[in-house]
From TrEMBL:
The lineage of its organism: Eukaryota, Metazoa, Chordata, Craniata, Vertebrata. GO terms for cellular component: apical plasma membrane. It catalyses: (R)-lipoate(out) + 2 Na(+)(out) = (R)-lipoate(in) + 2 Na(+)(in); iodide(out) + 2 Na(+)(out) = iodide(in) + 2 Na(+)(in); biotin(out) + 2 Na(+)(out) = biotin(in) + 2 Na(+)(in); (R)-pantothenate(out) + 2 Na(+)(out) = (R)-pantothenate(in) + 2 Na(+)(in). Its main location: membrane. The chain crosses the membrane at residues 12-33, 53-72, 84-107, 128-149, 161-181, 193-214, 239-258, 279-302, 322-345, 379-399, 405-430, 437-459. PANTHER family: SODIUM-COUPLED MONOCARBOXYLATE TRANSPORTER, SODIUM-DEPENDENT MULTIVITAMIN TRANSPORTER. GO terms for molecular function: monoatomic ion transmembrane transporter activity; symporter activity; vitamin transmembrane transporter activity. It comes from the Eukaryota. It is a multi-pass membrane protein. Sodium-dependent multivitamin transporter that mediates the electrogenic transport of pantothenate, biotin, lipoate and iodide. Functions as a Na(+)-coupled substrate symporter where the stoichiometry of Na(+):substrate is 2:1, creating an electrochemical Na(+) gradient used as driving force for substrate uptake. Required for biotin and pantothenate uptake in the intestine across the brush border membrane. Plays a role in the maintenance of intestinal mucosa integrity, by providing the gut mucosa with biotin. This is Sodium-dependent multivitamin transporter.
């Protein structure tokens, strides 16, 4: 029988969490008052195109590694087994194609915004449509991705919901608005180290308490949580090599090929070679993050087996169970829970502030004010980063009022990403494509994606979904695993 773990943060946990936030803010302040002091748009928005391969790689890794990887993957593996690990098979092509197709095109054109390419290839209308679509995608995403893990954390631990949201949102806004892209990249490096440290601490301590890694593996095998290669072509099966290893390639291309947040990091590299190498370096890092998430799920299973806190009613969703597990493992080790929470709250929302400021400045403002001085352009860029940071907090507040509609908001990120990828691929791979075709294709892609995504959400029957057996569930109608994992984060009860 499981004993109920008393969920609360100690003073040491709060201190650790606060210190890591202060360190992040300190990096932004350092770059605000050192070097060129962010006096030009090239320095503020593009890090003066002076970044080396390693920090760019870790920033690429951090950009979309938030609560999805840290909370979602372990609960997925605990419940359904290690088949999810085969998502890593998609990383090779998903990073190789951007490295040798998208990066050379963007880098040699010396672009600041990826959507400049759409004007060069098609026309200004296509560029503006792409930019507006991206802004819509990221504005919806950034508030929700900040609010959802805070809601899950509050439901499990009583950690102050709006204290966490405001602290992270304001700190991220501060170092982004003051330090520019260089501060964002180096903060990503620091927070990636924190992320690895948090995950490793949970795995090492949890495995030790379970009797060692050999015992963890034995229990996972006996519990049918170790999955082999599933080549079943049935698209309705929850996870197979084809849905993860092949379907995941398109998810990776949308994120690492044409998303402005990632493109901006490529373009901040000193040389095209270093930009390409950053994709090769991030490949093993992605595999490590995925493997750590899966391993954490196995350690959870070794601790609880089939007698999970979810079944006992101690938590309300699978993702809350990860937090319950962390509090359980660290109940006699004050400070480590705070480290894990800091790892959880390294927000991918911040990655969007600078990229949104860039596309707004380069695609929507500069074309109408070609004679704007560099000083004014830089000041306006900083103001835009600040505004988008405040918009993020406003969106987090709106997310708290959205209720079940919040789950649909998560899926919008994926619905928009696919059609945008399609427009770039149309321009690069089909020389006979014209602007009309690009606009019609983008509109048709968005219409189809929203019809399927929103339609599946609206038609979903009310009430809890029964837990299916391993590897035999129907594939969710949302567009990708990111949506599937993230939507479960918001099904908790109202915050305390």
């Amino acid at each position: 029988m499981l004993d109920v773990v008393q969920m609360h943060f100690t003073t040491v946990d709060y201190v650790i969490f606060a210190l890591l936030l202060v360190a992040s803010a300190g990096i932004g302040l350092f770059y605000a008052f050192s070097g060129g002091r962010q006096r030009t748009t090239q320095e503020f928005l593009m890090a003066d195109r002076s970044m080396s391969c390693l920090p760019v790689s870790l920033s690429l890794l951090a950009t979309f590694q938030s609560a999805v990887a840290i909370l979602g993957a372990p609960s997925e593996v605990y419940t359904f087994g290690t088949q999810y690990w085969f998502l890593g098979c998609s990383y090779f092509l998903g990073l190789l194609i951007p490295a040798h197709i998208f990066i050379p095109v963007f880098y040699r054109l010396r672009l600041s915004s990826a959507y400049e390419y759409l004007e060069l290839r098609f026309n200004k209308t296509v560029r503006i449509c792409g930019t507006v679509t991206f802004i819509f995608q990221m504005v919806i995403y950034m508030g929700v991705v900040l609010y959802a893990p805070a809601l899950a954390l509050n439901a499990v631990t009583g950690f102050d919901l709006w204290g966490a949201v405001l602290a992270m949102g304001l700190v991220c806004t501060l170092y982004t608005a003051l330090g520019g892209l260089k501060a964002v990249i180096w903060t990503d490096v620091f927070q990636t180290v924190v992320m690895f440290a948090g995950q490793l601490a949970v795995i090492v301590v949890g495995a030790s308490q379970a009797g060692g890694m050999a015992e963890v593996w034995r229990k996972a095998v006996n519990g049918s949580r170790i999955s082999g290669l599933d080549l079943n072509p049935d698209p309705l099966e929850r996870h197979t090599f084809w849905t993860l290893g092949v379907g995941g390639v398109f998810l990776m291309l949308a994120l690492y090929g044409v998303n402005q947040a990632q493109v901006q990091r490529y373009l901040s590299s000193r040389t095209e070679k270093e930009a390409i190498m950053s994709c090769y370096v991030v490949f093993p890092c992605q595999q490590i993050v995925l493997s750590l998430g899966c391993l954490m799920g196995l350690v959870m299973f070794a601790r609880y087996g089939e007698n999970s806190p979810l079944d006992k009613g101690y938590v309300k969703t699978n993702d809350q169970m990860v937090l319950y597990f962390v509090m359980d493992v660290f109940k006699d080790l004050p400070g480590l829970a705070g480290l894990f929470v800091a790892c959880l709250f390294r927000s991918s929302a911040v990655e969007t502030f600078n990229s949104l400021a860039t596309v707004t400045m380069e695609d929507l403002i500069k074309p109408h004010f070609p004679n704007m001085t560099e000083a004014k352009a830089t000041l306006l860029s900083k103001g835009l980063a600040l505004v988008y940071g405040l918009v993020c907090l406003a969106m987090a507040y709106l997310a708290s009022l959205m209720g079940s509609v919040l789950q649909a908001a998560f899926s919008i990120f994926g619905m928009v990403g696919g059609p945008l990828l399609g427009v770039f691929c149309l321009g690069m791979f089909f020389p006979w494509a014209n602007p009309t075709g690009a606009l019609v294709g983008l509109a048709a892609g968005l219409a189809m994606a929203f019809w399927i995504g929103i339609g599946s959400f609206v038609m979903r029957l009310p009430g809890p979904t029964p837990l299916p057996p391993l590897n035999t569930t129907a594939l969710p109608l949302f567009d990708n695993m990111t949506t599937t994992v993230m939507t479960t984060l918001v099904s908790a009860a109202k915050p305390r």
